[in-house]
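Supplementary Methods. Inverse-folding protocol.

Structures were first reduced to a discrete structure-token string of length 340. This string, shown here, constituted the complete conditioning input.
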């Protein structure tokens, strides 16, 4: 009889500045993407495991202390789908506990952080049982990617995370890599950059990311989008390294609007922006023009806005959010700094 062992891990959600949109093969991205961790959105996972070849699989799955059959089925399917890459899944009996430090109902995708935390635990188990994992971060990113593409960017410890082959030759389609900035660049950018999330609507999305990705395969703008993403990636990467926050802001807003334009022009087409999302965009642009503040936005496949700004401009920008934007939101998840 083998004994029961415990592994635990944590992972932050991430916000993409150049968006992953469209995939092929085994969860490979059609274009490179780059993201930053969201410190106020963290998932924790703990797994009790034992070798039990006669009865492998998930014996219990709890999300925030409650049994969750839906999640359990999704993770079971995932474990079966990776048996060729992670053969241990055929031998392990698992009790999985996950939780988020942010409300599940806030309309914020928790799959990236949750899957990254689970993948990190799976790699720890592999290390404990087989002791042969050469590059645990890389391995965790591969396993996370196979659960959800954006989760591949939630395993690292860098200031930014890059996933997908690109013309700068600094990435891979298989896993993400960490990008670290030196102190002088950070100072120029006003580091840390905060991500305050304006929850415009927390209702469930009418279209899943997976459906959205698959519509890219036949999208009339597919080739142009891939080219645009490569170019935006190149310009953003150099802006980050040159401490050029204005160019950074231009690119991230262009990416957000391009993502939504792609969704609006797919067959079938869908619009996930809410009237309040558009109102907020307009107010941000006016505020920026009037004050020259470095306040920029990005948006994922939903109506909520991520407001990105340097910590050194926090006070005035947060006053503006409270006085001018709050009324157009359901709730606000204020940006935080990463724990050191
Ligand atoms: C718009 O990673 O949720 O947030 O791989 O099907 O799980 P799957 O999709 P997912 O897609 C995220 C898309 C995005 C942009 C991004 O995070 O890069």
């Amino acid at each position: 009889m083998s004994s029961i062992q415990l592994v635990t891990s944590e992972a932050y959600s991430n916000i993409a500045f150049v968006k992953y949109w469209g995939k092929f093969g085994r969860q490979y991205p059609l274009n490179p993407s780059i993201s930053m961790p969201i410190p106020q959105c963290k998932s924790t996972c703990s797994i009790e495991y034992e070798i039990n070849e006669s009865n492998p699989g998930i014996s219990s799955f709890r999300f925030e202390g409650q049994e969750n059959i839906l999640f359990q089925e999704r993770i079971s399917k995932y474990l079966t789908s990776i048996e060729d890459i992670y053969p241990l899944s055929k031998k392990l009996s698992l009790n999985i506990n996950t939780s988020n430090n942010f409300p599940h109902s806030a309309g914020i995708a928790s799959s990236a952080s949750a899957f990254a935390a689970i993948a990190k635990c799976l790699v720890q188990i592999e290390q404990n049982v087989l002791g042969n994992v050469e590059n645990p971060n890389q391995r965790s990113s591969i396993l996370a990617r196979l659960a959800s593409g954006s989760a591949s960017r939630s395993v690292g410890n860098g200031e930014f995370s890059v996933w997908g082959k690109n013309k700068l030759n600094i990435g891979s389609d298989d896993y993400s890599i960490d990008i670290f900035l030196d102190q002088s660049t950070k100072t120029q950018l006003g580091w840390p950059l905060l991500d305050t999330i304006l929850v415009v609507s927390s209702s469930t999305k009418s279209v899943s990311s997976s459906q959205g990705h698959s519509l890219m395969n036949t999208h009339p703008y597919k080739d142009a989008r891939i080219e645009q993403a490569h170019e935006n990636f190149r310009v953003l990467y150099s802006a980050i390294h040159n401490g050029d926050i204005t160019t950074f802001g231009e690119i991230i807003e262009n990416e957000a609007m391009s993502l939504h334009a792609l969704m609006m022009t797919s067959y079938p087409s869908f619009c996930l922006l809410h009237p309040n999302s558009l109102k907020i965009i307009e107010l941000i642009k006016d505020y920026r023009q009037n004050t020259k503040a470095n306040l920029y936005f990005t948006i994922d496949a939903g109506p909520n806005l991520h407001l990105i700004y340097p910590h050194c401009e926090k006070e005035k920008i947060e006053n503006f959010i409270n006085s001018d934007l709050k009324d157009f939101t359901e709730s606000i998840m204020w940006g935080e700094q990463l724990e050191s």
